[in-house]
From TrEMBL:
Species this protein is from: Thermocatellispora tengchongensis
Keywords: Monooxygenase, Oxidoreductase
Keyword Oxidoreductase in record: yes
Name of protein: Alkanesulfonate monooxygenase SsuD/methylene tetrahydromethanopterin reductase-like flavin-dependent oxidoreductase (Luciferase family)
Region (Disordered): 331-350
Length: 350
């Protein structure tokens, strides 16, 4: 893969179902297994899989297989999911999402790191069992937790010693700073070593010609947002204590303003120099050591344009950021996009 050859840190794909908003990737593990077979260094990242929609024994086994097939290159990202139509289709109540998520992640962790595991929880019981194959990474692959707007969810991830995945699109700068502060403080208070890894996910439109980059960005970002609008429409008539404030999501997406998003660094777009400046600003706002995950072809942008942007990023943007300070990564999302990030000179063995 091109991203592997150029030294990008990881490739990442989300799980969504039934709509053009990410619904072409219902099984990230299958996609990433194909990536692993064609690459040597780039990490493969689930960003994220949804424990609520599958038995944790099955999910833990699939991810363990992926860690083996990639020779220990898996980062396992887990998410609660947030689209009411997905929960309805899988016949899972929204009110159970938080408990199912927490239980599913912990079961996977125990199955990877222990033998003869038994579990008797709120919605699944089993044991004792020993999961095979054992994961290559010991005691288990790095675990990431996806968060959207909740400082409480970020704090819970920090207390558990997990890493964090965040999409800044629907969160204010101040709100995201509060979320990251809650994560870092909870992680420190719990005594976990290190600062934890934080992945911030952005769409990125890059070209030598500024007007051409911004024309593509406006067109394809609006197409991407249109798909998201359809996917979140059910929140117009749904309420859940597990998702406080999500009823506002429909209006937030409907009011999307590209110019405001660009000015607020919620979308990265322009020449290499301009995108370099945006990433430097993001780093200043949210702290060093972040992984900036870049989606280069959202909204069904032509492959040729996305490939040009990936090459341009590796050549002209990534060298501005030492790999020890910011790791730029790659994210495939809707329609199986290919993604990449900063630190393109450092191939780690997402």
């Amino acid at each position: 893969m091109l991203a592997d050859a150029l030294g990008f840190e990881h490739v990442q794909i989300v799980e969504h179902h039934f709509t053009p908003y990410g619904g072409y990737s219902p099984d990230p593990v299958t996609f990433l297994a194909a990536v692993a077979a064609r690459t040597r260094e780039i990490r493969v990242v689930t960003g994220a899989v949804v424990p609520a929609f599958v038995h944790p024994l099955k999910l833990a086994g699939k991810l363990a297989m992926l860690d083996n097939l990639s020779h220990g290159r898996l980062d396992a990202g887990f998410g609660r999911a947030f689209l009411p139509d997905e929960f309805a289709a899988f016949q899972v109540p929204l009110s159970e999402s938080r408990r199912r998520f927490a239980e599913g992640v912990e079961i996977c962790r125990k199955l990877w790191s222990e033998t003869e595991v038994s579990w008797h929880g709120d919605w699944v019981s089993f044991g004792p069992v020993t999961l095979l194959p054992r994961t290559v990474q010991r005691p288990h692959p790095p675990i990431f937790v996806a968060a959207t707007t909740s400082p409480e969810s970020c704090a819970a991830a920090g207390r558990a010693g997990h890493h964090l995945q965040v999409v800044p699109t629907v969160t204010s700068r101040e709100g995201l700073q509060e979320m990251l502060a809650a994560y870092r403080e909870a992680r420190r208070a719990a005594g976990h070593p290190g600062e934890g890894r934080i992945q911030l996910k952005y769409t990125c439109y890059l070209d030598e010609d500024r007007s051409r980059a911004l024309e593509r960005a406006r067109r394809f970002e609006h197409n991407y947002i249109a798909k998201m609008t359809g996917a979140v429409a059910a929140w117009g008539g749904v309420r859940s204590d597990d998702y406080p404030g999500y009823e506002q999501l429909v209006e937030k997406v409907r009011r999307y303003d590209f110019e405001a998003s660009l000015a607020g660094n919620k979308v990265l777009a322009g020449t290499p120099a301009e995108v370099t400046e945006q990433i430097a600003t993001v780093r200043e706002w949210f702290g060093a050591g972040l992984s900036v995950c870049l989606q280069f072809n959202p909204g069904c942008m032509p492959y040729e344009d996305a490939e040009r942007a990936v090459r341009l990023f590796a050549a002209e943007v990534a060298p501005a950021f030492p790999a020890t300070e910011i790791a730029a990564e790659a994210t495939p999302e809707t329609n199986a996009e290919t993604a990449a990030g900063t630190g393109a000179q450092q191939a780690v063995a997402r």
